Amino acid sequence: MKKTFLSVASVLAVAAGVTANAVPAHAATLWTVGPGQSIQAAVDAARPGDTIQLSAGTYQESVEVEKNDITIKGAGSGTGGTVLKAPATFPANHCGDHQAGICFRGTVDGTDGPTSHATSFVSGGRVTGVRIDGFKVGISLSATDGTEADGNAILNSTSYGVTDTVSKNSTISSNAISDVGRAAIYIGNYNIPASHTVVTHNAVARSAYGISSYDSSGVDVNHNAVTGSCSGFFSFSDSLRVPGGELLDVANNAFSANNADCPGQYGFPEAVQGAGVILVGTTGATVEHNAISDNVGPDRLSGGVVIVSSQVYDPADPTVQGNLVVTANALHGNGPDDIVWDGAGSGIAFSQNSCGTSSPTGLCSAS
């Protein structure tokens, strides 16, 4: 179907009730926006199925999407593409309150915390080809269903690169994320039994927790590379976890030289330094076919693959891990050991891991 190209001047005309380049109600429209024009105005005027095409150049906005099937497409995530910078004043909405770059948001009862639920979802939608620089949060997906964040560059976020909270069927792929104060990618889907979240082919550097999953079920983390951070992948669960376990699959990733030092902060009282994969109070997870190397630190959570209960976080009601499979990983140069397990939990299996040292001994190349 023929698409219509509209400037923001046309967007404002439509918003004001003036017909400009009208098309049938079922036809998708391509809205073109250039530097100096308003991305938010185009989003506000768009209908489900429309695309907001951003020309190359720099924009200073915080953009919130509360409609189904809206695509925001930049001209590329390099310095010569579409660059989104923080505005001098943030808007008075959820996205502005969180000082985020681009937000897709449904309706949530309360905050996006562990006790929250989505009461309605924004479905579909995509953000791609945008360079997002200098926000507190780069991209926020909250109460979304089937939303994609792919092919973006996110850097210098003081808190998070991409957050996926109270959402399902999200795809976070092929993003380059660096220099983030907390987690480059944070999954917190809490009370959704199986979120079917896919995190794949992302490159993360110099970010506190790399990729992090908190009380989330049905998360597939594959073919990502994390380096220069405090940890590669961090799963944390406590008594608020989803009943039935996390159902995590961490496969075919490269976690190397994550030796930055994160002191106890951001809800984790223990220091984190030199960790490839950390599973704290996690159940129902598989860690397989990962390359985990040169992650070295002095802390309890340091090492290649580290498995511990959550007792240190909640002594009165600790979550003890269970039903974990650690298999066919290549681990070397991690310290104090390539595999570390505190001995707690049941159904913990180690097999065919190529590594040098473990605590307790005997977890390398075991069958």
Explain what you see.
Helix 1 (8-15) crosses helix 2 (39-45). A hairpin with a 7-residue loop joins strand 9 and strand 10. The chain has 367 residues and is mostly beta strands. It has a 13-stranded parallel sheet. The protein has an eleven-stranded parallel sheet with strand order 5-8-14-18-21-24-27-32-35-38-40. It is elongated. The chain starts with a strand and ends in an 8-residue tail after the last strand. It has one domain (55-359): Single-stranded right-handed beta-helix, Pectin lyase-like (Pectate Lyase C-like, 3 Solenoid). The relative contact order is 0.07. Helices cover 5% and strands 43% of the residues. The longest helix is centred in the first third of the chain and has 8 residues, at 8-15.
The gist of it:
This protein is mainly β and 367 residues long. It is built from three helices and 40 strands.
Largest sheet: 13 strands, parallel
Distance between the termini: 58 Å
CATH superfamily: Single-stranded right-handed beta-helix, Pectin lyase-like
**How confident overall, as mean pLDDT?**
89
Helix tally equals 3
Secondary-structure class? mainly beta
Poorly predicted ranges (pLDDT <50, ≥5 residues)?
1-24
Q: At CATH's second level, what is the architecture? A: 3 Solenoid
* Percent of residues in beta strands: 35-45%
- The general outline is elongated
Q: Helix content range of the residues, please?
A: under 10%
Q: Order of strands across the biggest sheet?
A: 1-2-3-6-12-16-19-22-25-28-33-36-39
Within the CATH hierarchy, at the fold level, what is the topology?
Pectate Lyase C-like
The total beta strand count reads 40
What's the alpha carbon Rg, rounded to whole Å? 21 Å
**Total number of domains:** 1
> What's the CATH class label?
Mainly Beta
